[in-house]
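Predict structure. Chain length: 515.
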Amino acid sequence: MTGDPIWRIAEFAPWLGPNLTAFREIAEVTERVSEDAVGPLMQLAASVQLNALKPTDGAVDLQSLVAARPVAESASTAIADAQVKLADIDTDSTVSPLRAAAERLSVQLAQVAEPVEAIRVATALVPEFLGDSGPRSLLLLFQNPAELRTTGGISGALALLETNAGSIDLVQQASSTDFPGFDEPVAQLPDSTRALYGDITAKYIQNVNLTPDFPLSASLARDMWAKRYGTSVDGVISIDPIALSYILEATGPITLATGDILSAENAVSLLLRDAYVRYSKPAHQDIFFAAAASAVFERVAGGDLDASKLIDALAKSGSERRINLWSAVEAEQEELAATPLAGALPKKTETTQPFGVYLNDATAAKMDFYLDVQIADGQVTCRKDDRATFGISVTLTNNAPLDAPVTFPDYVTGAGVFGVTPGNIKTLVNVYGSPELQNLGVLRDGAVVPHLPATDAGYQVSQIAVELAPGESTTLLFGFLGDGQFDGAIETEQTPVINRHETTKLSLSCENPLW
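Prediction complete.
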C-alpha cells in the first residue's frame, strides 16, 4: 500500500505527511530485509544439514559452505544497508507508536547483524583455511592458562596442520622445549611493545603473546617456526584447554594412550593441574599434552561427534576469545579483523567505550590454575565540563591451599628461581584504555600506588605487578578520564583465564583520590 501514488501524495499533507513518509520508509526497509536477507537465509537453513559439515575420513565436504557464500554475502549486505537507511528516517515529528516501531526494528537489526556477518565471514574464510583454493599449512598453538599470557597462556605445545580440498592432516608436533630461545628478536617489534614487554616477546615462543595484539603474536610465532624448521605457514590458530573441554562436549569422552579418560568434565583439571603432579619432567608433560591433543584431533577429524554441539563449542570458545585466528593472506586477515577471532585491541564506537584487562604471569610457573579474577567496570561524571570518568576494578585472589609451598612440585611453584616465594602468584596486570582517554592512575585496596603509565599502539596503559600468597586477595582500581560526555555502554575485554566470570557493574562516586 505504501507504494501507491495516492499514498505518496498524502505524504504532503500537514501533520499526517511526516507520519506517512516515515511509515513508508520503514516498510521499504522491512521489505528489503525480508526479501534479501530473511527469505534467502531461511532457504539456506532448510537446505544445509549440519552433519554435512562434520569431517568424514579426515575431510570436510566444502561444497555446502561454498554454495552458502553468495547467500550470506547478500544477506549481510542487505542488513547493513537496512541499518543505514533506518538511521536516516526522520521520526522526530511522528506519533509515538511509529517512533517505537522504528526503535524496535533498529534493535532487531542490530541483534541479527552480528551473527549474519559471522556467517558471511565463516563461509568466506573456512573453505580457504581448509584448502578450497589449494593446500594450506596452519600452525596450531595450544595456550596454557596455568601460566598466563595476555591472549590466554604460554604456547607450551604446537602442531602443524596441512589442509587441502577439505582434508585435514596433523603432520608435525612440537613443544616449547624445541624453541630454546633466539639470540636476537625474530622480527622488529613496535617501540611501544618493546617498552612494555621487552625483546623477549620476539625471542621466546612462550612470550609471543605477552602483547594483546594477536596478529603480532601470530606473525612472531610464524617467524619462529620458519627459523626453527625452515617452513613458512599460511596461518596461525590458537586454542586453550577450556575450548578443548567445550569440544569434548561434542566428541564425548576420549580414552588416551595412558589409560586416562579425557572428558569435558575433567579436561581442564587433568591437563592444567594433575599432569604436573604426575609428571615431574617438562619433557614428559609435553608428551602427555601432545598425546591428548592428537587424540582429540583424531576424533574430530574422523567425524565421530555431534556437529551441532561442535558448532556451539566453537562459537562459545570464540565469544570467550579462547580461539584466535590469523591469516598471512592480507585479504583474509582484513575479513578476520572485524571479528572477535582476530584478537585485536578493542575499538571504540559511538555507543561503546572499550577497555582491556590483560594478565601476564610473572611467577614463571604453573600457579595460575589457582588464580581467581573478578572484573567490574563503571563510570561517573564529576567535572563541570561533564567529561566522563571511568573505573575498572580488578580483584585477584590466590586460591592455592596454604600448604602449597611445601606440597606442590617445584615446577608448579617455580621454586623461587625468579624471585617469587613458592606458593605465591605474581601477575603483571595491564589495563588498556582507548587512545582518547587520559590515564588517572591506580588504587590498590583503596590507596594510591605507583604504577607504570605507558602507551601501546596509541592506547593508554596502566601496568602494575601484584604478588599474592595463598589465600590472599587484593583489589585494583584503574582510573581513566574521557574526552567528553558519554552515556553509552562500557565493554571490557579480558584475558581468558581458566575460571572466567562475567564482568559486573561498578558503582563509582566522585569522592575518589584518583579523580
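Summary: The longest strand covers residues 154-164.
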